Amino acid sequence: MDAAQQEATARARELQRNWYGEPLGALFRKLIDDLGLNQARLAGVLGLSAPMLSQLMSGQRAKIGNPAVVQRVQLLQELAGQVADGSISAAEATERMEEIKRSQGGSVLSNTTQSTSGSGAPTVKRVVREIQSLLRSVAAAGDIIDAANALAPTHPELAEFLRVYGAGRTSDAVAHYQTHQN
Question: Cys bridge to 60: 55, 90, 132, 155, which one at CB 3.0-4.6 A?
Answer without folding.
Answer: 55
